[in-house]
TrEMBL record, chain A:
Domain Na+/H+ antiporter MnhB subunit-related protein: 185-288
Matching Gene3D superfamilies: NADH-ubiquinone/plastoquinone oxidoreductase chain 6, subunit NuoJ
Database matches in InterPro entries: CPA3_antiporter_subunitB, MnhB, MrpA_C/MbhD, Nuo/plastoQ_OxRdtase_6_NuoJ
UniProt similarity note: Belongs to the CPA3 antiporters (TC 2.A.63) subunit B family.
Alphabetical list of Pfam families matching this protein: MbhD (PF13244), MnhB (PF04039)
Cell compartments where the protein resides: Cell membrane
Keywords recorded for this protein, A-Z: Cell membrane, Membrane, Transmembrane, Transmembrane helix
Domain of life per record: Bacteria
Transmembrane segments: 6-23, 30-47, 53-75, 87-107, 148-169, 181-204, 210-227, 239-260, 272-296
Membrane-topology descriptor: Multi-pass membrane protein
MrpA C-terminal/MbhD domain residues: 12-76
Protein name: Sodium:proton antiporter
From TrEMBL, chain B:
Name the UniProt record assigns to this protein: Hydrogenase 4 subunit B
Chief localisation class: membrane
Domain of life: Bacteria
Signal peptide: none
Its membrane topology: Multi-pass membrane protein
Transmembrane region(s): 25-46, 77-97, 106-124, 130-148, 160-182, 202-220, 232-255, 261-283, 295-315, 335-355, 367-387, 407-426, 447-470
Domain NADH:quinone oxidoreductase/Mrp antiporter transmembrane residues, every copy: 124-421
Keywords: Cell membrane, Membrane, Transmembrane, Transmembrane helix
PANTHER family: NA(+)_H(+) ANTIPORTER SUBUNIT D1, NADH DEHYDROGENASE
Keyword Transmembrane helix appears in the UniProt entry: yes
Organism ancestry: Bacteria, Pseudomonadati, Pseudomonadota, Gammaproteobacteria, Alteromonadales
Annotated family: Belongs to the CPA3 antiporters (TC 2.A.63) subunit D family.
Length: 308, 480
């Protein structure tokens, strides 16, 4: 039974991937891509990686899908045709790589170091009970700090690209044409989304969840609000910019301030590690949500890049 | 207090500062920050010279559970080079960006994130951490390329992004395979564990492909010229001098750590051949370009080819030849960094003054802008590999290594490369010294000329003081 399910999942993934490449219409490609993301999330569940499944569903399928659909909308406005796919060479490369991977997987050496075991042994000292959170926010928190910087840079680049273009476009679409059904639905849904985001963040300390997943859910809520024409971001434009950097700011400040006590960079005081991690995760959730939302929010209006 | 984390905290803190408080004079603040970083790098250099290499466990978790940073001779040399080039580029940018009001706002945050990523990569001792560093580097570099928002810059930036992402994915797949096979991501541990089997070799091949893509080695170079040639002058300087070197640095570390046992001589010779082709093709394209910045950008493609000669000269050859190749390559990396940054800054000043981009527009410029042209000339001496310059010493070491290992074909490549370089450099000079032309120029701030001159002077000075960095540049331990 499970084998049947797994093979259907695998075939479905392949079919969706093929659909992404061979659809004539960009819109269909994107829909296939979203379906691919959802199947991939299911695959992660089957591989017993629920954290990855949550992230894949929220970011891979959800927000990326929204951004891609939005981009198609702009392409259509400018009557640009989808470029022709050169699929033969990539396909051959993929098949060759897949064969090599399968072959090498069979000849896999026995790993002499077991990191999961080390993580399990050090878990009591980490301040949290969920090993993934312990790795992300404690053992390898330096990676996470830089990842947050990557997200922030993405938002900064979007702002830089947008600065010249969007000011005009935004004012031109100022008049509101709010759909009453969507608006009513969204206004009831928004508090629930917020609650779910906070729950996922809180749950991260003892089960799958955490800042990235919570942030993605928060972002989804904000996107929904914007689509329903609520535009809460207009009330606090400058606050939004501070909010984008706030998570990184707090993370870096905590990471550095512990050095004053003579500890190495990013070492939480032993007794309070759990509280430190929860605090950092809370601000990260907030900022990740805003960053992901701002990537959507920054997409240009009617303008096209100018020639110079 | 340990200096290693400071080299990460300073750029990240300044990135936030310039992002959140744009009304402050962020250019001047940046200059203060970068001087601080230069001082820290110099002190760390001194520490390593006196006490030897040191490592730093972040969060007090030792590898493989945590991430370890490593500061050895090569690392501190690269940190010092980064800070030195960055301080001059920041000084240049303060004056250059006066003409670019809109771009200035976002230049500084991206500049600082880029520096943080570079410092992180030089210090990293962990394969996945290197991936994160590469991502941060790529994204800030792409952002800097597209700063102007012009159509050609956006196209170049997007192309750069796609190429770099493909490289990142290949690298990441390799990292995942190595982690699956050995259970650790720490470079130091991996170098003693690695063992010849299909999975390891596939992983190393994938990582090599990804890093070659990011280093823009022929034939994977086509993204580089539009990105480097189309960006603002200080951005081009940083991209060509530092950013492409970081992926090469990872590649070199990986190959030297894995060593002769894992890396087949044929693959090393193949990489050398790609390098030779890059030298010839890049040089020929540089000669053919009509825009002067594109000429300098193609020159980068050619000069990156010399770095690839490390592999055939070090893998499977004698100890002595490998040491010479390693020193020569790293000295080339340094002197090209300074010389190419100087070249881009000088050319940027010329383009700013003349207001046109083509080589022929520079006719008669020698009488009007002698200093910028002089800086370009000094930098060219090092790029061509004429004595006395860092470039000459580097090529001399590489040539000795080639002779020692009896690989005469690489000697021929080195000589032909210098001739091609001379041909495209003299093309610029023959135009700029035309006497009958009288170009109209806008006056530019003398600080612009001064910055280019300073970097060019350092490239030349490396010809006299090459021993200082070379002494520190020991090979990774298992090669000795």
């Amino acid at each position: 039974m499970q084998f049947a399910f797994d093979s259907m999942l695998g075939l479905g993934l392949l079919a969706c991937a093929a659909g992404v490449f061979w659809s004539r219409d960009l819109f269909r490609s994107v829909v296939m891509f979203i379906a691919f993301g959802l199947l991939l999330a299911l695959t992660w569940v089957r591989l017993e990686a629920p954290d990855l499944a949550l992230a894949e569903a929220a970011i891979g399928a959800g927000l990326t899908g929204v951004l891609l659909l939005d981009a198609i909308g702009h392409l259509r406005q400018h009557n640009e045709h989808s470029p022709r796919n050169h699929w033969l060479l990539p396909l051959l490369c993929c098949i060759a790589l897949a064969l090599l991977l399968i072959l090498s997987f069979n000849a896999r050496p026995e790993a002499s170091i077991s990191l999961p075991q080390l993580v399990a042994e050090s878990l009591p000292e980490s301040g949290v009970e969920h090993p993934i959170t312990a790795v992300l926010l404690n053992f390898r928190s330096y990676d996470t700090l830089l990842e947050i910087a990557v997200l922030l840079v993405a938002a900064v680049v979007a702002m830089a690209l947008n600065d010249g273009l969007a000011a005009a476009a935004r004012t031109s679409t100022e008049q509101s044409n709010r759909d009453p059904v969507l608006a009513g639905f969204t206004s009831r849904l928004a508090p629930v989304i917020l609650l779910v985001a906070i729950y996922v963040l809180w749950a991260g300390s003892y089960m799958p969840g955490g800042a990235f997943q919570g942030g993605a859910i928060l972002a989804a809520g904000l996107v929904l609000l914007k689509l329903a024409d609520f535009h809460i971001e207009r009330y606090a434009e400058s606050l939004l910019r501070l909010g984008l950097a706030f998570g990184f700011l707090v993370f870096l400040a905590v990471a550095t301030s512990v050095m004053i006590g003579g500890r190495p960079f990013l070492t939480y005081p032993e007794a309070f590690a759990g509280q430190f991690i929860l605090f950092i995760e809370a601000v990260l959730t907030f900022s990740i949500g805003l960053i992901l939302f701002s990537l959507f929010n920054q997409s240009p209006g009617q303008e096209v890049p100018h020639d110079n | 207090m340990n200096l290693i984390p400071l080299l990460l905290v300073i750029p990240l803190a300044w990135a936030l500062l310039s992002l959140l408080l744009p009304r402050l004079p962020i250019g001047l603040l940046a200059l203060a920050g970068i001087v601080l970083q230069l001082g820290t790098a110099a002190m760390l250099w001194n520490n390593v010279q006196v006490h030897g290499a040191s490592s730093y466990a972040i969060g007090d978790w030792v590898a493989p559970l945590g991430i370890t940073l490593v500061a050895d001779g090569l690392t501190v040399t690269l940190l010092a080079m980064t800070a030195l080039i960055a301080v001059v580029c920041a000084f240049y940018a303060i004056f250059y960006l006066r003409a670019y009001e809109k771009e200035r706002r976002y230049f500084w945050p991206l500049f600082w994130f880029l520096l943080a990523a570079l410092n992180g990569i030089w210090l990293a001792g962990d394969l996945f951490n290197l991936y994160v560093g590469l991502e941060l580097l790529t994204l800030s570099a792409v952002g800097m390329v597209t700063l102007s928002g012009e159509r050609h810059a956006l196209a170049a930036g997007l192309r750069y992004l796609y190429a770099a992402l493909l490289g990142s994915l290949a690298y990441l797949l390799g990292v995942a395979l190595l982690y699956g096979a050995y259970g650790t991501l720490d470079l130091g541990q991996l170098s003693s564990l690695l063992d010849a089997n299909l999975m390891t070799q596939l992983a190393l091949a994938l990582m090599t492909f990804g890093l070659l893509m990011k280093t823009a080695v022929f034939p994977l170079h086509s993204w580089l010229p539009p990105a480097h040639g189309g960006a603002l002058a200080p951005v081009s300087a940083i991209l060509s001098a530092l950013v492409v070197k970081s992926s090469f640095y990872i590649l070199a570390r990986l190959w030297m750590d894995a060593g002769d046992a894992l890396m087949p001589v044929s693959a090393a010779q193949l990489l050398g051949t790609l390098g030779a082709l890059a030298i010839i093709w890049g040089g020929w394209q540089a000669f053919r370009q009509s825009e002067i910045k594109m000429l300098v950008a193609y020159s980068t493609v050619a000069q990156l080819g010399y770095l690839m000669l490390l592999f055939p000269l070090a893998i499977g050859q004698s100890q002595q030849s490998a040491v010479l190749a390693w020193q020569g390559t790293m000295l080339h990396l340094l002197s090209h960094g300074f010389a190419k940054a100087a070249m881009f800054l000088a050319v940027g000043t010329l383009v700013l003054a003349v207001g046109k981009k083509r080589v022929v527009d520079m006719a008669g410029i020698s009488a009007k802008m002698p200093l910028a042209l002089f800086a370009f000339g000094l930098a060219s001496i090092s790029i061509m590999g004429l004595p006395p310059s860092g470039g000459f010493n580097a090529k001399w070491l590489l040539m000795q290594s080639a002779i020692q290992s009896g690989q005469w074909h690489w000697v021929a490549v080195l000589l032909v490369g210098s001739l091609i370089t001379a041909s495209y450099v003299f093309r610029v000079f023959s135009v700029s010294f035309q006497k009958d032309a009288d170009p109209q120029i806008r006056s530019t701030h003398p600080a612009l000329d001064l910055s280019a001159l300073l970097l060019a002077a350092i490239a030349i000075a490396l010809g006299f003081a090459a021993a200082i960095p070379v002494e520190l540049l020991t090979l990774p331990e298992d090669m000795l």
